[in-house]
Structure prediction request, 365 residues.
Amino acid sequence: MVKQLDIVQETLSPLESAILEAIWQTGGGESKVRDIYQKIKDKNPCAQTSVAVTLDRLYQRKLVGRKITTGRGGLSYIYFAQMTKEEYGKATVKEAVDRLVERFGSAAVAYFNEKYQK
Amino acid sequence: MFGMSEHVIQAAAAFLSDGTKMTLVGASLFVALALVLASRNNAFSARAKTAFLYGHLAFLLFPIVFFAASLTCKELGMCEVSLTRSLLFTIPIAAILALAGGLFVVPLLHRARGLPADARTLKMVRSCAREMGMAAPDVLVVDSGKPEAYSVRGLKPTIFVSVGMLEVLSKKELEAVVIHELCHLKEDSHALKNVAVFLGSFYPRAMAALMSPSAMISAEENKADGQAVISQKTAAHIRAAKSKIEP
Prediction:
């Protein structure tokens, strides 16, 4: 029996997956950079800047959404999940399979038919 | 086409063999060299260095303009004179347009993507500018999670800070960055950077000892950091801010 791997940890960097897991733990709700940093810093020692830069990268990749808010400390972002963990897994597998079909065409389709028909 | 090149070569040979014209060209290139050497001296202000580099460029382009202006219909046909002149005059005109673009168009493009700053940041910039004895610039926020800050001069001096910067820097660290950017605006480092980068893009690497844009920019950065240290009476805040901006 092959051990099932965590799709998030397998497809993202350790810091990216820790950040996404932290956001999902809040039910995909809204979190500030500082809140996420506080949550992950013990298991993933890093600077708050690294969390901010990584969140910016996750936003560019549309894995998280964000909105600007004005608080006591000035402007800041509120980040939230764009998809659940399950949706992320599904989208990642879909992307990989689509890429295979696009690259190998009928050979890939014939293989999937043969392997998973029953 | 080949015939025309031949005529231009002949005209160039006649130009080069004219003693008076060559003396003027030699003097022009000598002044250009003297000006670029003077611009390397950090005892001069950024404004003086900028003037030296503009002068250097003008004296460097003088021989091309002089040659173009000296072309006559005796050496070339009427049509060939106009065409060759147009091609040669394109070089200084393109240089002027590129420099003006860097000075005025690029700042406008940056301003177009800026968001209004919050009251806390505005108040900090105004207070720091007052202490430095200069008019407060505009402050705009960049919609980016990466900690970054920069300033542009253009027609309206502006300091840009990213949301990421406001999130990760403490108040004192942000103040150090603001003082750093205000120093660039006060010293007019932007004009120097613009002309130095423009010239550097044409000079081969071997000429870095003569004119190095990175060395000039680095001298301006050190000066701006020094201003933050003087104003805050400690290097701790600017150092901490830089470690967060460039981890």
About this structure: The CA atoms of residues 50 and 192 of chain B lie 5 Å apart. Chain B has a mean pLDDT of 88.
